[in-house]
Structures are given as C-alpha cells and as structure tokens.
Write a structure and sequence with these properties.
The chain has helices spanning about 5-10, 70-80, 125-145, 160-175, 195-200, 200-205, 215-225, 235-245, 280-285, 290-295, 325-335, 350-360, 400-405, 405-420; strands spanning about 15, 30-35, 40-50, 60-65, 80-85, 90-95, 105, 115-120, 155-160, 180-190, 340-345, 365-375, 380-385, 390-395. Helices cover about 30% and strands about 20% of the residues. It is of the alpha/beta class and about 425 residues long. Helix 4 (about 160-175) crosses helix 11 and helix 7 packs antiparallel against helix 8 (about 235-245). The longest helix is centred in the first third of the chain and has 18 residues, at about 125-145. This is Carboxypeptidase.
Length: about 425
C-alpha cells in the first residue's frame, strides 16, 4: 500500500480540531478525512453535524461545481456554520447555516479538487467517472458511519453540480446491493444542457437592459430559430463565442451577480476562479499548516478554490459526456424522489431562464405557475410547481451562489423543501 493510501485509510473520520481564527464555540460535532473513490483516488470530506437533532435530521451531501471548484466554498462562504472573513483572519458564525436543521456532508470532487488527490497522478476527466467515484465515496462514508443510513438523504449543490447531482442520484437509485434513503435533490443555478449557459445569456442581458436591441437581434438572427425562445438557439462554437463576447465582458458588470461590480482593486483574477471573486485570502487560509492539521489533511498539496482539471498529458475535463440532464431528471422523478431547482435571479451565467425553460421542457403539468412568494413580508422569488414533485423557483436578489448572497432566503427555501412544506 502506498504512503498516500495508508494515510487516507488512517485518517478517515477523525474528529476535526478547532479551526484557527474561530470566534465562537461550536455546539455541534464535525469530523473530516478522506473517502475511497477507488483504490488510488481519495476524496476529502467534511461532515458537520446538525445543531438540532443529528440522529434524526436529514443528511445533505453538498457539491460545488466548476468543474474543478471546491465544495468548501459551501462550507465557508455559503451554507455551513463557519463564515470566513474577507481578509481570511477570522471565522464567525453563520446565523443562516443549514446545519441548524440538517447534517452537512461536504465532498471535494472530482479527484484533484481541493484536498482530494490520487496516489497515481491520475485525473477524473468526465461526468460519468465523476458520478461513479462519488458513489464509491458515499458507500465508503455510510460504511464508516452506518448510523446515518436511516436519515433522510438529499444531494444538493450548484452550478456545474447541475450535472454532478442528477448523474450521481441516478447511480444511487440504481443500486441493488446497497440501499440509500434518497428523498430529494436540489440544484442552485445549475447547468442543465450543453451550451445553454452561453446561448441563454444574451436573452437575459437584453431583458435587463445590459444588451442593446441591435446586438440582441444580431445574435438571434444568426444563432436562433426564434428571438423569443432561447432554447431554439444553436450551441455551436461560433454562437457560444459570440454570446460570451457580448455578455461576459461588459465593463464593470459581474456576470455572476449583475447587481454588483467588478472592482479594479480585486486585481488580476485567475482564469480558473469565478469571475470578479478575489480568492487569495481564502486560499491562503486553507493552505495554512494549522488549518490542514485541524481538518486532518496530512499532505502538502496546494489547495485552490478552483482548479483546471487536466491529466498529465494535458487532456481537459470532458463536459460533453451527456448532452442533457433531462433523461436523468425524468428517471429520478419516476422513482418518487423530489426535485428542486432554485436560481438566484441576478446571475447572468447560469441564469434563471435556463431553469425555467428546462423544468418546463420536462413535460409536467404546472400545479402553480410563476407564483410570487414572500419572505418576511417581501418578495422572495417566483416559483412553479409541477404534478411530478418538481419545483422551480427564483431567489430574488441573489447571484450565482444564492446561499452566499441571500443566505436567509435560501435557507428558508431549503428548510421548506426538506420538510415538504410550501414556501
């Protein structure tokens, strides 16, 4: 057995120590380590127990997207109990943490993302392999912690996890020898069809006044069958390039949250990271020796928020394994697993029009169509519910990472979904 493999087996499930910079005393347990995705691939996990009733509260597996971005974004910036300050010096308590009502399992996937690694210098380069390895890691987790097998299980995430989640959920439901208690999936600002994130962007930008009439007509006349239906647009490389040039480089506009600005003081933004997001303090914190020790990481590989996934030969991650998530969602719904799509409505990259068109294409009959809902007396978003246990909703005023930009509203939606209650 290699040194790396031995370490992975040794530290799986060790209780995490207090994190450097912590400004509050946690009233919950949390532990971390590595799960076996194969005999040579080890995925870092961080299990954070519920503050309420960990023995009975639901278990949520959280996955960030990319492909190549760490799910610890969720833990430190979005829905976890820890909130890392912008300067990376302190960790305060997130009052809207989802672990107030659920157990949270963060998994850095695929291999080479975050602290996850391979002992053979391998890479995971397509969605099918990612789903298979995530399944193996889940089986390892429930083998180590069988007490969680009875808890209601949910898979959630955002962005490119719109591909990770349905493919993984399908494998989970297909298992014969190993049963999971999967009750639902929830996807925030998700990628759902190849190329839709690009060709839908001009429609969104035009609808909010960021793209002029002539530019919009130029795009639709060359790339779309109908200027009223973005799902009729071609996703050829030429049309994708045209869309990106029109929408992703508007001066001063953050395409992941059009209500914010890309400020010059952020400095050079690395191509691997989310646009306009300065990740230097986050990465500096995660690469501190005492942080790694607290999280039971016993290697010195560099941690980055997002990595360019490629193998030693330079082959990139293949995002073309599956053209659409429609067959997967159809299958999941037929298995009586509830599905929620939630979209921050100020995100242009994976904008809410994508979710609206995609859920409508699934063919269900709307029970309630585009109904506004309130949070604390103010508009929280608009939702459409279908007969097939499928729900689509916007999160008003949130960008690409809805739990970060509107943590209270998003937590309310997720808690309602877990309890199968109206919101």
């Amino acid at each position: 057995m290699s040194r790396f493999a031995a370490l992975a087996l040794l530290i799986a499930g060790v209780r995490s120590a207090d994190l450097p910079g912590l400004t509050f005393t946690p009233n919950f347990n949390h532990f971390s380590g590595f799960l076996n995705a194969s005999d040579s691939k080890f995925l870092f996990f961080w299990m954070i127990e519920s503050q309420n009733d960990p023995g009975n509260d639901p278990l949520i597996l959280w996955l960030n997207g990319g492909p190549g971005c760490s799910s610890l974004q969720g833990a430190f910036l979005e829905n976890g109990p820890f909130r890392l300050a912008p300067d990376g010096r302190e960790i305060t308590e997130n009052e809207n943490s989802w672990n107030k009502f659920s157990n949270l399992l963060y998994l850095e996937s695929p291999v080479n993302v975050g602290f996850s690694y391979s002992s053979r210098n391998e890479s995971t380069l397509d969605d099918h392999t990612t789903a298979t390895e995530n399944l193996m890691a889940l089986i390892h987790f429930f083998t180590l912690y069988p007490n969680y097998k009875k808890n209601d299980f949910y898979i959630m995430g955002e962005s490119y996890a719109g591909y990770y989640i349905p493919t993984l959920a399908t494998l989970v439901l297909e298992q014969v020898d190993y049963r999971f208690n999967l009750k639902g999936i929830a996807i925030g600002n998700g990628v759902v069809e190849q190329g839709w994130d690009s060709v839908f962007a001009p429609f969104y930008a035009h609808s909010i006044g960021l793209l002029g009439k002539h530019q919009f007509e130029y795009f639709t006349s060359r790339c779309c069958l109908s200027a009223k239906s973005p799902d009729t647009c071609s996703t050829t490389s030429e049309c994708v390039k045209m869309s990106v040039e029109m929408t992703m480089n508007i001066p001063g506009v953050d395409p992941y949250d059009v209500s914010e600005h890309c400020l010059d003081y952020l400095g050079e933004v690395k191509q691997e990271t989310i646009s306009c997001f300065n990740d230097s303090s986050f990465e500096a914190y995660m690469n501190r020796k005492e942080v790694r020790t607290a999280l039971n990481v016993h290697h010195d590989l560099e941690w980055k928020v997002c990595k360019n996934l490629a193998d030693p030969a330079g082959r990139q991650y293949n995002e073309s394994t599956f053209p659409s998530m429609q067959p997967f969602i159809h299958y999941i719904l037929k298995k009586a697993v509830r599905v929620l799509y939630f979209y921050g409505d100020t995100d242009m990259v994976c904008n809410h029009m994508i979710g609206e068109y995609f859920t409508a294409k699934l063919g269900g009959t709307p029970v309630k169509d585009s109904v506004p809902w309130l949070f604390n007396g103010r508009i929280g978003g608009k939702k459409t519910t279908y007969e097939s246990d499928l729900t689509y909703t916007t999160i008003h005023g949130a960008g690409h990472m809805a739990p970060q930009w509107r943590p209270d509203v998003t937590a309310y939606v997720i808690r309602s979904f877990l309890n199968n209650q109206e919101f």
